[in-house]
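Much of our argument rests on the idea that a fold can be written as discrete symbols. The amino acid sequence and the backbone structure tokens for this protein are reproduced below:

___
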Amino acid sequence: MHKWFVQDREGREIYLTEERWQHITFRHKPLVDHLDDVLATIRVGRRKRDSLQPFKYFYHRRCDTLPGAYNAIVVVVLYGTDNRYIVTAWPSIE
């Protein structure tokens, strides 16, 4: 199974599996042609820690190439002991 690796602004390596990408595009059709934008959200987006689950982070970035009224992407990353991986992503309105 394919994995994409990307580093966030602080140099933390995060990966996206092909299975998770299929999940994202099945549930959030506007992201189908936006894999590079999802990965860019990790590279340059703002990061916020979940207040109830300290191992969960949200990355957010404006993206003006999304269809319709969407103009941002949110990516959820789970931080494990030895790995960090993208769980899901969705288009958003800023």
About this structure: Residues 3-92 form one domain. The chain has a mean pLDDT of 97.
